[in-house]
Write a structure and sequence with these properties.
The complex is a heterodimer. Chain A is mainly alpha-helical. Chain A folds into 2 domains: about 80 residues, no CATH class; about 60 residues, Propanediol/glycerol dehydratase, small subunit (Hypothetical Protein Yqey, Chain: A, domain1). Chain A is about 55% helix and about 0% strand. In chain A, helix 3 runs antiparallel to helix 4 and helix 6 packs antiparallel against helix 7. Chain A is flat, with a radius of gyration of 18 Å. Chain B folds into 2 domains: about 400 residues, Alpha-Beta Barrel (TIM Barrel), CATH 3.20.20; about 180 residues, Rossmann fold. Helix content of chain B is about 40%, strand content about 10%. Chain B is built from 28 helices and 20 strands. Chain B has a 7-stranded mixed sheet, with helices on both faces. Chain B has a 4-stranded parallel sheet with strand order 6-5-4-11. In chain B, helix 4 crosses helix 6, helix 6 crosses helix 14 and helix 18 crosses helix 21. Chain B is elongated, with a radius of gyration of 34 Å. Chain B starts with 9 loop residues before the first helix and ends with a strand. The chains are: A mainly alpha, B alpha/beta.
Chain lengths: ~140, ~750
């Protein structure tokens, strides 16, 4: 998903607050102290959505921050990965933790489970480069 | 060890005892990585491309790339511009950095085609002044700001909250904390979060701990940014840090997926310290780090050697190299938190001088952690600038009209905000069922300077609560409720706004900070547009007024208030003074003496000064006449006017502020027999001696000049008052009026 946005759309919090929703689908305008008091909000309502991260990525790119944009697009793919799993994936990518095959499996899993092609590409790249530089786990 | 050989020269012994000589200075040793900007092992810049991308970079062919080379070639090097940039002379590029007519964006574009060796080559053409000019142009955010460190040795929550609130009030945009005991992390993060938001809405906070815990704190909403993501310039150093550029890139995305701001950490010297420099210069390795940071998609970096700072500073050109690494971050388009955090020298002169390299140009965060607490409470290992230096910092800002990101505050404001923050964390602890914070602890935190002023807590109970909090389901949203329930509605609203902002994500953009109204300011909407005089960030208007208003500033009109009191009536004017015919000493006083002004600079009463001088004269058996000079306020001319009317030709000239001269009518007005130019060094005893010596001159008795003890700081201390007293004396001048003889009554 790639979106083009004018630089002027930034900050989204000032210019597009009506259209921002959290990961749970709750509108930004509902994230009020009244609703906290009423007990209708949970911590999950305060998570950034994939859509908003894509918009931020588009804004980064529009101002020439291409690498940051790539990072934010990967982040957009990761919003639905549970917290503990996120830490597990990070650990898997540390040096010497996984075999080449295990990393390729992880990349494929990111696509089938989370529709995360850019993250998958980063993981495949990791596998290739760890293979070339001897940073893989020898065998499982 | 320095006592083994004593310097025969007392001068050298005095120098050896200076603080600067506690620092270590070494000659470069490239094989051990101990060279700042240029090692024989540093590669020459080169690149060649083929259909698969970068075939060769900085003298290394693709098949021999280590994983950092691979990462840079794959993610950081802009293949669209690399050939254009690499064939451009580094000197030409260096000139573009300081050319005010070449915009920042154009420099960033060109620099995105630099290999690491090319980046270093460009820097080699710049002296520190040029680097400072380039830094002013190249930093991401137009408005400079600063970050604070908030920790304490007792890990006391009330003190953390109070200190965080005070730091927020002082204008720091980010408050960073860390822990001595790792398990405290959730409670420390909580106290700093609550305190910061009570102090000022919109302050970003973090608690630097192990990566996994760090991420969990962020996910709970207890922190809003992280700068723990360290990178290194050699693959072995990277692996010793149990990471690679790929794992760090993933981690960056993981944080962003939770709406958390990150910046990476690098800095010269770390590879040498870890024993993996491969004989390369510190700056070359840092250039590799910075390209990894950019390639991983981090919005920014903290560098400037950080905790290794004393290592580059041991080398020639080390401080220049550290400035070069700051500049490199900005030319790669990265937010820069520019070091100045860890203790860099024993010498205050050296620390301050180094600071100017970042302070004057301005960076996104001038320090990547100003120790807003006393050094002994700094759990980062002691700050380069601590709580005790806050006033010095504010004065430097006022001196140079430079915004260093710290606002002066008043004691009453501090006490108020500290008390409120301590009460707020007390309320949160009560609501979340943590071990209670007592009223006595709140009061201690309000007035405390350091953790020495704080009572001990039950550490076992606190740590148990910390474990439960980290593993349990409570989050920052529960903290919002706790504050709200206990009547801290403003705190609850601000904390909630911090949580809303992570849904919006505007602060994930480069160099983002919030103002007190949560208006985001980043490289997207506050882009640095410096293009020479009259452009870019200017410290003026309300902000300049705020930075001028130091609490210790006084109204000069109040330094010398009118002295109308009983001392005034001791001089009676009897009419124009005649020229004397008998042996005598004339005592000529300034136009304000004893009337508009009744005390000297140091507060000695004029009546007493007059008596002391007359005692001295009369003691030698000579008579004296007193006259007031109206046509001048200058000490020499007052004395000379008196001398011209003196029967002996000798007179004493006395200004109201106390400055004195012994004069003779045959001397040129600006010559003298003896001059006492610094009134603060004069006591009543000195004035008596002045009278005695003047009498001796009149009697032609040989006499040695008066010896004075000299206070070297007198002028420094009293120059404003001196100016004001002299201004008032000058106001009393009556042009053309003759000297008037005065009778003392």
């Amino acid at each position: 998903m790639s979106e083009t946005l004018s630089k002027d759309a930034y900050p989204l919090g000032e210019n597009s607050c009506d259209s921002i929703r959290g990961r749970s689908g709750k509108a930004l305008s509902d994230l009020t102290l009244e609703n906290v008091r009423a007990g209708t909000l949970s911590a999950a309502d305060f998570c950034i959505s994939s859509e908003t991260l894509h918009r931020q990525a588009a804004l980064s790119a529009a101002s020439g921050y291409e690498e940051l944009a790539s990072n934010l697009r990967r982040a957009a793919e990761l919003v639905n990965v549970p917290d503990e799993e996120l830490l597990d994936i990070y650990d898997a990518l540390r040096p010497g933790r996984k075999t080449f095959e295990a990393l390729i499996d992880l990349a494929n899993y990111m696509i089938t489970e989370y529709d995360a092609p850019e993250t998958a590409q980063l993981i495949r790249d990791t596998a290739d480069n760890y293979q070339a530089s001897g940073r893989l786990l020898a065998s499982e | 060890m320095s006592t083994e050989i004593r310097s025969p020269s007392r001068r050298f012994a005095a120098l050896a005892a200076r603080k600067i000589n506690k620092d270590t200075f070494i000659q470069p040793w490239p094989e051990a990585g101990l060279t700042a900007m240029c090692s024989p092992a540093d590669p020459r810049p080169s690149v060649s491309l083929d259909d698969d991308g970068v075939a060769e970079m900085d003298g290394v062919r693709r098949e021999n790339f280590d994983f950092i080379d691979r990462f840079i070639a794959r993610y950081a090097l802009d293949l669209e511009v690399v050939e254009e940039t690499m064939k451009t002379d580094s000197l030409v590029i260096a000139r573009k950095l300081v050319d005010i007519d070449i915009p920042r964006q154009e420099v960033v574009r060109i620099m995105s085609g630099c290999t690491p060796a090319k980046l270093v080559d460009v820097m080699g053409n710049l002296n520190v002044l040029e680097m400072m000019m380039a830094l002013a142009k190249m930093r991401v955010r137009r408005t400079p700001s600063n970050q604070a460190h908030v920790t304490n040795r007792k890990e006391h929550p009330a003190l953390l909250a109070a200190d965080a609130a005070e730091a927020a009030l002082r204008g720091f945009s980010e408050n960073e904390s860390t822990v001595g005991v790792a398990r405290y992390a959730p409670l420390t993060a909580l106290a700093v979060l609550v305190g910061s938001q009570i102090g000022r809405g919109g302050v970003l906070t973090q608690c630097a701990v192990e990566e996994a815990v760090n991420l969990r704190l962020a996910i709970k909403g207890l922190t809003s940014y992280s700068e723990t993501l360290s990178v290194y310039g050699t693959s072995q150093a990277f692996v010793d840090g149990d990471d690679t550029p790929w794992s760090k890139a993933f981690l960056a995305s993981a944080y962003a997926s939770r709406g958390v701001k990150i910046r990476f950490t690098s800095g010269t010297g770390s590879e040498a310290l870890m024993g993996h420099s491969q004989g390369k210069s510190m700056l070359y390795l840092e250039a590799r780090c910075l390209m990894v940071v950019k390639g991983a998609g981090s919005q920014g970096v903290q560098n400037g050697s950080i905790s290794c700072i004393a290592l580059p500073e041991s080398l020639p050109g080390g401080v220049r190299a550290v400035l070069a690494e700051n500049l490199l971050a900005t030319v790669l388009g990265l937010e820069l938190a520019s070091g100045n955090d860890a203790l860099a020298s024993h010498s205050d002169i050296r620390k301050s001088a180094k600071l100017m390299l970042q302070f004057i140009p301005g960076t996104d965060f001038i320090t990547s952690g100003y120790s807003s607490i006393p050094k002994e409470d700094n759990l980062f290992g002691g700050g380069n600038f601590d709580a005790e230096d806050l006033d010095d910092w504010c004065v430097l800002q006022r001196d140079m009209q430079v915004d260093g990101g710290i606002s002066p505050i008043r004691e009453t404001e501090s006490l108020k905000i500290r008390a409120r923050a301590a009460r707020a964390i007390q309320a949160v602890y009560a609501e979340l069922d943590f071990p209670p914070i007592t009223d006595a602890e709140v009061e201690a935190a309000t007035t405390a300077h350091s953790s020495n002023d704080m009572p001990e807590r039950d550490k076992v109970a606190d740590l148990e609560a910390a474990d439960v909090f980290l593993d349990g389901s409570q989050t920052a949203l529960d903290v919002v409720c706790a504050l709200d329930n206990k009547g801290f509605v403003d705190g609850a609203e601000r904390l909630l706004e911090m949580l809303r902002q992570r849904v919006i994500g505007d602060y994930l953009q480069p160099a983002a900070i919030f103002d007190k109204n949560f208006r985001v300011r980043s490289g997207l909407n506050d882009a640095n547009d410096y293009a020479g005089p009259g452009t870019g960030y200017r410290l003026d208007g309300e902000r300049w007024r705020a930075l001028q208003a130091l609490p210790q500033t006084t109204d000069p009109k109040e330094i010398i208030s009118p002295k109308v009191n009983g001392n005034k009536l001791f001089m009676h004017e009897v009419g124009p003074a005649e020229r004397g015919t008998s042996p005598e000493v004339v005592l000529a006083v300034g136009p304000a003496f004893g009337e508009e002004i009744t005390e000297t600079l140091t507060g000695t009463r004029h009546v007493d000064v007059l008596r002391a001088i007359l005692d001295g004269i009369l003691g030698e058996g000579l008579s004296a006449r007193v006259m007031r000079i109206y046509h001048t306020s200058d000490c020499a001319f007052i004395g000379h006017a008196g001398a011209k009317l003196s029967g002996s030709g000798v007179a004493i000239g006395l200004q109201s502020r106390g400055t004195t001269v012994i004069h003779h009518r045959d001397l040129a007005p600006l010559n003298n027999l003896e001059l006492f130019p610094q009134a603060p060094n004069l006591t009543l005893d000195t004035y008596r001696q002045i009278g005695r010596n003047a009498a001796c001159y009149a009697l032609k008795h040989p006499v040695p000049p008066i010896k004075l003890s000299v206070d070297n700081h007198a002028r420094l201390r009293l120059i404003v008052k001196t100016t004001l007293m002299h201004w008032r004396e000058t106001q009393q001048i009556e042009v053309g009026a003759p000297p008037i003889e005065v009778r003392i009554g």
